[in-house]
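Chapter summary example.
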Amino acid sequence: MKNAFKISVIGCGNVGATIAYSLLLDGTATDLTLIDLDASKAEGLSMDLEHSLPFTSFVKLLANTDFAACAGSDIVIITAGKRQNPGESRLDLAVANKKIFKEIIPQIAKAAPDAILLVVTNPVDVLTYEAIRLAGFPSGRVFGSGTILDTARLQFHLSEKLKIHPRSIDAYILGEHGDSSFPVWSSANVIGKPLFEFDGFSKKVAEQCYEDTKNAAYRIINDLGFTCYSIATAVMEIVRNIFADTNQVFMLSTELKDYYGHSDVALSVPCVLGRRGIVRALEIPLDSDERKKFTASVGVVQEYIGA
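The structure predicted for these 307 residues follows.
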């Protein structure tokens, strides 16, 4: 295993900057390259992060406007694109951000042909599929952050009701990272005990937890103007597990290949994550209602893939 571990972050807006800061504090990366078409934004972020180095593990920082600077990257994290504004859904960004991806993904793929591409830009499922097509990489090396954050939000809201730490709750969000996502209640449990067997937990409580999860980003964007801290933490966790080759399972947006009969689309399903990206997708049991919701989510994303 080589000693160096280079990560490039494409886009130095709120999300990209916070991801870079999280990675700096984490210490997994030895090289951190920041790329933005606005040179002053990339250089300013790099300088600000450099002043943290006396308090962190040493990281070699580089700011650039040229995608060639991605060369040698182990992971390229893509956050560039139009961001979601109050009143907009993630899917409203599809046309604008697909145009941006058509410009940048071929350049990234040329500069870093052996890298893993992690798509964070929304709509993440549509753009993950677009990035796979444009990069020409094996699909396991191109994937999106998907519903990893939706799942974390659901586990948090459930923990508030159950008075149990979120990490002990096995409950997941699958499908689109958006309004057609759905929780998998049929297998949700704590150490094997179904959630609906807990005192005070009911269908009404479950539905409220999911609604709070689904609407979280809209609320934060309305109040703060953007979301960045929780997704940066989630991306940091993804990077850690790639570096350590843990084969841990995360809900990530990946190209489906006959997953419950669905192909030619990227959606979030349970994925085993290792040093070279997604090792495989796990087909977990879904009840009839969950299968219908999954099919509906596939249809929503496919409509925007073709747009």
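To summarize the output: The chain has a mean pLDDT of 95.
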